[in-house]
Amino acid sequence: MIALKQTICAAVAVGLLGNAAGAETRVTYKSAKSGSSYYQMGVELAEAMKAGSGGDISVTVEESQGSVQNVMEVRARGADYVFTTPPALVGLAQEGKAMFEGKTAPAFDDIRALFPIPSLTMHFVMSQNSDATSMADLEGKSILLGKGSFGATEGAKYLDMFGLSDSVEIADAELSNAVAALKNGQIDGFVTAGSFPAPNVVEAAASTPVNVISLSDEQIAQSKRTRIVIPAGTYAGQEQDVTTTSLPVAAFTTTKMDDETAYQLTKTYWDNKAKMADTSPWWGNVTPELMSNITTELHPGALRYYEEAGIATKASQ
What we know:
Layout: E1 5-8, E2 25-30, H1 37-52, E3 57-62, H2 67-72, E4 81-85, H3 87-95, E5 111-127, E6 142-144, H4 150-161, E7 169-171, H5 178-183, E8 189-193, H6 199-207, E9 210-212, H7 217-223, E10 226-230, E11 242-254, H8 259-279, H9 300-309
Parallel strand pairs: 2-3, 2-4, 6-7, 6-8
Antiparallel strand pairs: 1-3, 4-11, 5-8, 5-9, 5-11, 10-11
């Protein structure tokens, strides 16, 4: 797929990044599929970087097919590459396990963390016409998982884990088609992973009555993921809290990025996070406590910021 790009540039201010006059730090930010919460976050983060740096940081947001692709592209990218993925996926890449088995590369060992972003939240979205109100009710239904994304992989894992793999029809389509397919009755539901409120779930709930399925405490424990609650009223027609699972996500780069750029990206992010939360509530869920979820080694430039700010990290414990 041709990458969908949104370039956010501004006139260059002097000296914020310690560069010569007229210099500009350009960053490519690989996020997620367009229409997803993570793509929207990328756009918001790019705007915040531009404003917070006085125009010294220019960010190009690229659409991707998901977290696995983001990690794989490390092999061919340069010093300007920033991408998002769960820290656990970086660990799998560095160990050559699961979806990275047989695909190990020296570049994976050079991945370094910058800062946490809102966690991935699993959404099982079902048309009310399907009468599905629990995971067991997915039996015999047509579900769209998408392809290549963390949500697709995680969704398939849950169906298998809960004994539904052989009784659910998986639609062969991209996640970008989910809302239209649901509205037209071509599928009974779809699975997506994104911080709430997730744009594609907002769109689906606004166009047709849906149920966002809760997982039981036993199912959450079985998943070995973190329990999270989507408050009632988050989506149109959602009258009750939805209990589901979440997974930490962070922004990463590699050792190719110089320390000063990594420092300024990290500092600008934290300095402007509160402003982002004023317009998009998901940023309010990011706190320094989330640093404990980052198991990947921090970039030296990012670590310098955390030491100056007095924010605890794995490296400082």
